[in-house]
Amino acid sequence: MGVDLYYSYQQRVAESRKELENLSIIIESNVLATLSKIDVVISETAYTFGPMVDGRKKLALLEANQELLRRMAYIPEAQALSLRVINADGRVVFNAGETAELPNVVVADRAYFLRHKSDPNAGLVLSEAILSRFTGKWLLTLSRRMVDAEGNFAGVVQAALRTEYFQGLFELVNVGADDSISLLDENKRLLARHPPRLDAVGQQFDQLAVVMHFPSDPSAISYRRGAGIDGVDRHYVIRNIGAYPYVLVVGRSSEAIRSLQQGKIYLYVVCYFCLALAFACFLWVYVRHQQELEKLATTDSLTGLKNRRIFDSTLEFMMARRVRNSFSERLSVALFDIDHFKMINDTRGHLKGDEVLRRVANVIRCRVRKTDLSCRWGGEEFIVLLNDCDIEQAIVVAENIRSAIADESMSYPDDGFRVTISAGVAEVAEGDTVDSLVKRADDALYQAKASGRNRVCR
Predict the structure, then answer these.
(1) Are residues 288 and 314 in the same domain?
(2) How far apart are CA 135 and CA 149, in angstroms?
(3) Which spans are transmembrane here (predicted)?
(4) Which of 90, 88, 99 is nearest to 55 (CA)?
(5) The domain spanning residue 165 has which CATH number?
(6) Secondary structure element (H or E) that encloses residue 424, with its range
(7) Looking at the structure, do residues 217 and 339 belong to the same domain, yes or no?
């Protein structure tokens, strides 16, 4: 019986390790997804705002702060208003917010700032746990270097992630009363822990036997047994968070493992299922949230068409592909403008104007192919990207849309007015840029307006 109990206990230990390993994978995946998403926003911001820091481009402080605030909508996990641009002197020059105010704090002495300043190849730098000079809260920062026109250090773009985010993530996981989840940096400083130990955040635990030796291989997993920072004897799974300088330590108390031997198998299965279900629900909510963010960022809320940002990026991609294919593809755009739309708004009201915009958008949507892209360009203007379509074919499509809108179905006999549109069409030519192509379509639209409206010009 003693031998049987021994091997049964070892089996329970192995099972517990496997559970902890799976749990660590789930947590690692969530942390990696969050860090990667914030890095994308930081990288794009560094590229966009670098020229503004060294004076190559100009943007009012209020507009810049508001643009940073808009970008923060993509990273709700980050600390509110933490996306900021810092110049080479360590001073904040742009900070996400609705006002032109800036925090009066210098970060030139911070380790992450000095790292970027001295190392052009630092890439994404993640800090240790920092007690913020801005908020007084524990956080870690993600930052990337900016360079000027000569490639010299121009400052950093930074966003912050409060350690409370990890605390909240850990609390979503179903663990036992004596189990623990800890996140440490590469110097064994505590970033977050469940159950909470706020007094220990930022402290170094390099003498703790459990974390004395971290896995050297980023993909490796270590197993330890010993006392944690609270003195409870546990079995631990230790793994690196991808290639980032953080380590996840997940532990289960030895007493809990022993008590598992006395439990029912079905109870274990139910608990594991509940954990998986909780994660699935969390993942479902996360995916839905991401989808909503993407929809808000790419769709015009009034008409349901794609917005100008999507049009610009798609047209740029299609033109680049056309160059790679030796200009063998035909590509055209049609720019539409509702005639006398201001008069409609002024005489019938904005609600009637909104109705006209929606109906025109629906006509355009129904009369282009699935391979084409219809967008609201702004105000009463719409634009359609016609793939694999020359100028003559584009005129036919634009004329079909124009005539459909001029049809009885788009009239308002009770108000005594009819809705018509004018259109300008242009085909991509060699040497065209996005701006030059759209300008030619706009010139053609102007010609249609000047020629009496309710017509298509090229």
Answers:
(1) no
(2) 33
(3) 265-287
(4) 88
(5) 3.30.450.20
(6) strand 421-427
(7) no
Could you please report the per-residue DSSP string of 99-141? SS-----B-TTSHHHHHHHH-TT--SEE---EE-TTTSSEEEE
For the domain that residue 418 is a member of, what is the CATH number?
3.30.70.270
Query: What tokens does 131 get?
Result: 């007690």
Lowest mean pLDDT among 71-80, 228-237, 399-408: 228-237
Q: What is the total residue count of the chain?
A: 458
CA distance 313 to 317: 6
User: Which tokens go with 115?
Assistant: 């790292």
> Does 92 lie in the same domain as 156?
yes
Could you tell me if 274 and 346 lie in one domain?
no
What's the pLDDT tens digit per position in 24-47?
A: 888 888 889 999 999 999 999 999
Residue 204, CA atoms < 13 Å, CB-side half-sphere: 5
Query: Per-residue pLDDT tens for 265-280?
Result: 455 456 667 888 877 7
| C-alpha distances out from residue 87 to 50, 79, 105, 178, 437, Å | 9, 21, 12, 46, 37
Boundaries of domain holding 375: 308-451
**Structure-token pair, residue 208:** 């703790």
Q: In percent, how much of the chain has pLDDT > 90?
A: 38
pTM of the model: 0.51
Average pLDDT value for the chain: 84
Q: Are residues 213 and 264 in the same domain?
A: yes
Q: How far is 128 from 245, CA to CA, in rounded Å?
A: 9
pLDDT at 281 over 80: no
Token pair 């940096």 is found at: 185
Secondary structure, 3-state, 365-403? HHCCCCCCEEEEEECCEEEEEEECCCHHHHHHHHHHHHH
Whether residue 364 is contained in a domain is answered as yes
- 131 and 230 part of one domain: yes
Task: Name the percent of the chain lying above pLDDT 70.
Answer: 84
User: How far are the Cα atoms of 222, 225, 236, 302, 377 from residue 211, in angstroms, in the given order?
Assistant: 10, 10, 10, 55, 57
Tell me which amino acid residue 102 is: L
Among 127-136, 182-191, 259-268, 403-412, where is mean pLDDT lowest? 259-268
| 302 within a domain of the structure (yes/no) | no
The structural domain count of the chain equals: 2
Q: Tell whether 394 is covered by a domain.
A: yes
pLDDT tens column, 297-327: 688 889 999 999 899 999 999 888 888 887 7
